[in-house]
Amino acid sequence: MSLTAVCSKQLPPCNLSEEDLLQNPHFSKLLLGLSQHMDESGLSLTLAKEQAQAWKEVRLHKTTWLRSEILQRVIQELLVDYYVKTQDTNLTSEDKKFHETLEQRLLVTELTRLLGPSQEREMPPLLGLERADLLELMPRSEDFVWMRARLPLDVEEQLKKKCFTLLCYHDPNSDSDSETLKAAKVWKLAEVLVGEKQQCQGAKSQQKEQTVLLEKKSATYSQVLLRCLALLQRLLQEHRLKTQSELDRINAQYLEIKCSAMILKLRMEELKILSDTYTAEKVEVHRLIRDRLEGAIRLQEQEMEKSRQVLSTYEVLGEEFDRLVKEYTELKQAAENKRWALQEFNKACR
């Protein structure tokens, strides 16, 4: 058997792995030594034995108390049923005598118990009553003897009803059985309940073991996941730089191809607009206009060339020609001014 199995079986639940125990042999020996003096709950064997004996005594006292408590409650229920029946049915004189005697005896006994022994009481008695005052209220001895002889039968009948009710609650199919069969089932009901309780305790123990196992597996899986995450992180750090350049190159090629496709698409749209805008007739008209414009441009160029030749001829004459041109310009300007003044004078004479 492995060390972890021994520790899990003989010691309280603890998260120890086989690897931890193998790495700490002295600690393993200490645990094995402690397992000889401890039980599964962590108590020493002597203390566990004393605790078991104490629980046994507690259960014994609890059983005794439960018996007296059940008997008292059954008697109180008999009295409650009696008061309920007095409202609906006519009871016989014997029933009235029995229940009144029982109630009187029960009340006197309870009050006597509350007063307690006179020699141990330091405070004044309750309501000034003494034990002797209460004893005077006791029913007659012959009535008490007669009530005491009948009481076990009524209590037994009341308990039988409760047992049958409990049986029908536990096994609803028993409601239709005969009274004899119900009594037989009630006789074995305690064993059945004990068996079911043991099954529940066994299921709880298994659940506890499964919980401990689940916690161990969870801790192991968490460690494995952490190691896997660390390995993945290291792989990413090592291979990210290698793959990033290739990824950037592929992205650049993709963007270049996409850009070329967009340019071609724009050129195609441009050509489509031009083809829709300029028909064959319009192109022919534009050709004629262009030919005429080119002809006019050629004529202007020829005239400009002639003017340039004339200017070149004038430039040969030098400063004297410039003086004559300037004088001619001034005379022409003076003639224009006099012509304008003459026109204004003629307008004024009219």
Automatic annotation (TrEMBL):
GO CC annotation: HAUS complex
InterPro entries reported for this sequence: HAUS4, HAUS4_met
Key words, A-Z: Coiled coil
Coiled coil feature spans: 290-334
Gene Ontology molecular function: microtubule minus-end binding
One record GO biological process: spindle assembly
Protein name, as recorded: HAUS augmin-like complex subunit 4
Species this chain originates from: Leptonychotes weddellii
Gene name in the database record: HAUS4
